[in-house]
Write a structure and sequence with these properties.
Layout (H helix, E strand, L loop, with lengths): L1 H17 L3 H4 L1 E6 L9 H14 L8 E6 L6 E7 L5 H18 L7 E5 L2 E6 L13 E9 L3 H20 L6 E8 L5 E8 L5 H13 L1 H4 L3 E7 L3 E6 L11 H7 L16 H31 L10 H8 L5 H7 L8 E5 L2 E7 L5 E7 L7 H13 L8 E7 L2 E7 L6 H5 L10 H21 L3 E3 L8 E3 L5 E3 L6 E3 L5 E3 L13 H6 L1 E3 H17 L6 E3 L2 E3 L1 H11 L8 H6 L2 H17 L10 H9 L50
Antiparallel strand pairs: 1-4, 2-3, 3-5, 4-5, 6-9, 7-8, 8-10, 9-10, 11-12, 12-13, 13-15, 14-15, 16-19, 17-18, 20-21, 22-23
Helix pairs in contact: 1-4, 3-4, 5-6, 10-12, 14-16, 14-20, 16-19, 17-19
Length: about 675
Amino acid sequence: MPSVSFLFFLLYLTLISHHGTIAQIGFVKSFCGEGPTDSNSSFRSNLRNLLLNMSFNTQIDYGFYNFSSGNNSDKVYVIGLCRGDITVQDCRNCIQDSRVIILQVCAPNAREAIGWYDMCFLRYSNRSIFGVMETSPGYNSLLDSSDALEKDEFKNVLMQMMSYLREKAASGDSLRKFAVANASGPGNQTIYGLAQCTPDLSNKDCDICLRRAISDISKCCDGKRGGRVVQPSCNIRFGPDSVGPNSVFDASAYNNTQPFVQSPLPHPASKQGKRNKSSRIVTAAVVAFTAGLTLLIFIVVIYLKPRRRPNKIGTEAKDAADSLQMDFETIRMATNDFADANKLGQGGFGAVYLGRLCNGQEIAVKRLSRNSGQGDVEFKNEVLLMAKLQHRNLVKLLGFCHKKEERLLVYEFLPNKSLDYFIFDPIKRSYLNWQKRVKIIEGISRGLLYLHQDSRVRIIHRDLKPNNILLDEDMDAKISDFGMARLFAIDQTQSNTSKLLGLSNGYMAPEYVKHGIFSTKSDVFSFGVLVLEIISGQKNGEFHNEETIEHIGTVAWKSWRKGILANIVDPTLLIEEGDSSRNKMMRCIQIGLLCLQVNTAHRPSMASIVTLLSSSSCPIPVPSEPSFYNWTSMPSIDIPSSLSGDQSVEESRNELTFSEQFPR
């Protein structure tokens, strides 16, 4: 917004002349979000008081501030972060000056804003921003516009250094996620680098944020000696200086707080003559000979060693599962001998019971029925998967028991049951306002992204539906039920099966229904159906549109094309929500339709979906009209013999295979 930037510039000049420290912090960039506030409102009053108290807080000496104040719609969340290399006093000065600027420019007109400065940034919002990784809005700019010498070699050294800084910063604690380093580039030019995240992020989210920032270097600063990429949750910078107005960081000041981190990077090879080159060749030959001899000895030992039957269960995963094994009597007593009064529900594979351990902890026990169809392979599949998976949007496995014909899985107890308990009930779904539904959608997307990309093994869930989405006490979504999950090799993209399994009608992707082909895009299709069900509050195959019953995707397509929400959105949401929520609803509908594309190449990945859901400005591709099969008459699978990849489908009645586990 040019007018806002100009106003910032005028205010900046005014403060320079009246306030000495503003010149030190250096105004850089601002963002004022939508949503006007009354200058006398409780929100603005809470914001002013919170910023005032924060800017004079003398107890915090590590440069990170995160506070909130108020209730409901008047609640304010504030984050302030100083560069890790500046002094405590400079940090406090920067926070105080940024408070003055952000109140003058953004507070009268916006319920969220960010002000970026050279030494710190300040952010406020009317929604919770603590621990939330966000990469937009952001900006990038040059710190040094001169061209780097030997650009390719310079870029190689720079990327190595930034990768090192990313790992170093992401390994920080809840007080500081910050790292600096330098490296020798071509032509004896020194490259200084800095990487920083808000410390409230998890280590993994910090790593993801910095990866995205580093990938943006090519957009602003490719081949240049210095630049920076700044986002709400993290920032990076690099350049040739450690002193002066365009310095990357103050090396002398940082040395006073903790030891300077020298990047352990290999220096670019210099031209040192044939003698050094010959030395390297000899060294390489010796290493190669030693490695070859070692490999030969290893092969001989393995060949002479008595052969054992290959074990499909990875040793590491098996050890993890063994550590979770529980005594049957302990579980039986916890559930009052599996009393009917303790039954929480009945699933396709058996009943789920509420239990209470001796220490008072509540648990949910899944007791597989003897004729459930889930054999030992599927049971081991779920145990081994859940033992390895750790994510806040996945249900946590606490233990298991396998005694004769009894197979029990012990999970954390989630008091709010499953999503279908709320979303399909005409009364209970009114408890889920739009903010809660968005949080559920985003939680499911993050859980799937972890399964598809971030976990140690790539996993296709294959049974994503509302009753497999559980809700905790804060209505956070957790994906459950991994009995139908399929593990993929790290470079595998799709597979085939000879029978339809797992998914209920309406959640199956077309390629799975017709040919038995499944991939991560199969889960994406199911996710799209879930999104539309959460928005509408109606089941996918039973959508009542006036006097007709249509598939939810058909109704969503018609509504999206016309720009109308009334036909697809739960009426209780339209009564209370404003324009910004309606825009978010339309974006979610468009994302859901993208997930339902018949061509798998046109469906987005879960990484793209997470990005689109977290941003209100990223453009969303235009979906084509989805087509749907007649779910009441399931077509037979036509699998060419050349595509039938499952050689071990006879391992269980459910035709599941248990794949090898590949570390990521």
